[in-house]
Write a structure and sequence with these properties.
With 541 residues, the protein is α+β, with helices and mostly antiparallel strands. It contains 17 helices and 15 strands.
Length: 541
Amino acid sequence: MNARDFERERTTLENSLKTKALDFTATYLVVSDLHELVGSHPEIIRPETIHALQGVLKNSGFSHQTQSFFLYKEAAEALTSIIVHAIAEPLADEANYALNYVLGTSTGPVQRAAAGALGSLPISIHGPEVGGETIENISLVKWYEILEENGITNGRAPEVIGRSLTVPFDKNNRVLVVKLACTEHSLQHICRESAWMEHLCSGDYAFPVRFNIPVAVKIRGSYVFRLEKVPVSISEGIELHPESYAICFVAHKDYFAYPNEHRTERRLTTEEFREVIFRNARLLGKLTFLGIVHSAPIPLFHNRVQRDRRADHGLYEWPRGGRLDRWLDSCCYPNFCVTGIRDFEHLISFKGLGQKLYRYIGTQIFSLLLVAGSYFRNKDRERVGLDGQGNPIDARDLFDKEFLKELVQGIYLSYYHGFVGIEFAGEIPFDFNELVSRMIDEMGVDRHMEERLRVVDQKQMTDEDFSKFLGDRGYSANEIKGFKRGAEDITLYTGPHLGGFNERISLPELTEFVGTISALCIAGRYWRESFSKKGHLKAES
C-alpha cells in the first residue's frame, strides 16, 4: 500500500465513526483499526482523526454495554498514540486537549479510560541502584551494648512506639531508634530500610522542603543485628520476627509526630497540618520523579481477612474501585510525618515506563487524601461505629468543608509541583465542591461497619488462631465459645469501611479524582520532557 491508500483507509474509518450507525462490536473494530493505523503511519493523522476518536468517547450510546470500558480505552489510547507519534506538534496539542476535555466532563468508564490513557504516556524515570549489605554472620546484641556503642550511659528504659524502641540521643533534638522486624518481614525486608537511609544521606540529593532523613547506625560493623532480649513489653497485636532482626538509626525527635494525631496534646493545628500534608505531598512527588517510589504511604486493603489466601494479599488496587477496608484504621500511623517521609522499607527503585507508575502515583495521592479526611474524624475518635440502637454514627459536624476543599486542592498542586518540577497552570478539571461534599458524607457517617469471616478462611486457621482473631475484634470469651470454626460465615463489625462487604467503594468520586490528577501529573511530566528536548524548557535542576 502506498501513502494514498493509507489516507483512503483513514478517511473510510473516520467516516464510519462519524455516521454513528455501527453497533458496539463494529465500532470497536473500527476504532482498533484506526488506532493501529495512526500508530504505524503518523504522517496521515489529521484533525478529523482526533475529532472522530473524541466523538466515540463523547458518545454515551454504548455506556450501558458491559464491555464499554474496552471500547473507550481503545479510543483514548489511540489519542495518546497521536500525542506521542504525531509529526506536527499542533496535532499532538489537539489530541491532548481532546483527552483532557473528556477527562473533565465524563464519569464512569469513559473517565477511567481517558485517565488511564494519559497515565500511560511514556515518561523516563530512572531510579537509583540501592543494594542491601551482604550479611553472613548476624551478631546477637544486648540492649545495653547498643546504648554503649552510641555513647548513651543513662541506662533509662526505652519508650515503645509500635515496634520501635526509642531513647533520647543528645541535646540536638534527636532520638536513637531500634526498629524490630515483624513476623511478616524477611531479612531482606529490614535490610532495605537501612540501605535507603544510607543512600539518601550519602547521595547527592537536594530537597526543596524540610526532609529530616534518619541516619542508619552500624552495630558491630553491620546495619542489621539480632536483639538478644527486648528490654520492655511490645504492644499486643505486634508479632516480632522469631530471629529478632533489628536495625538502629538516629532520627529527629519529631519522627514519630503523626500529622493526624487524635491525642489532644499532640494534635496539629490547622495551619500546622496544612504545612505538613502539603510538604509531604511535594516530597512524595519529588521522590517519585527521582524513581524512588514509596509503595505504602498508608496500608490499604480491599480485604484484610483474606491476606493469606488471596494472590494479591488483599491489597487495595484503587483503579478497580472496590470497597476499601477499614479506611480510618489505615490512617492511624501514616508513613509520613512532621519530619517528612518515613518507613523506608517501603521504598522501591522504579525504572522505565508503563502504567505501574500511574498506579503508584494514585496510591500516594489516595493515601494523602484519606489522611486529610482522618484529620477531622480524629478530633473525636470515640465517635466511631454504631450507636446503641445500631444506627451509624454521624460525625459530619467534625469536618470543615472549606478547609477540606483547600487540602484536597493543595495536595494535588503540591504533588504535581514535586513530580513535574513546575507549578500547575490552568484549571483542574474537577468539581471540588461536589467531591468534598461526597467525602464528608461518606467519611463522616459510618454506614459500612460489617465484614464477614468466610468459612474457607476459618478452615485455614487453627483453633487458637480462630479464637485470637475473634477476640482481637471485640468478641468475648463466652461469645467465642458459641462459634464452631468452619461451620458458617461470621459477621464482624470492624469498620468503618468505604463500601459494603464484597461491593464497590461507596466514594467512587474519590477514585475518579485520583485517576484524573494522577493522569495530569504523568501528562505534565511528559510535556515538560518533550518541550525540554526541543529546547523550549530548561532541564530539571
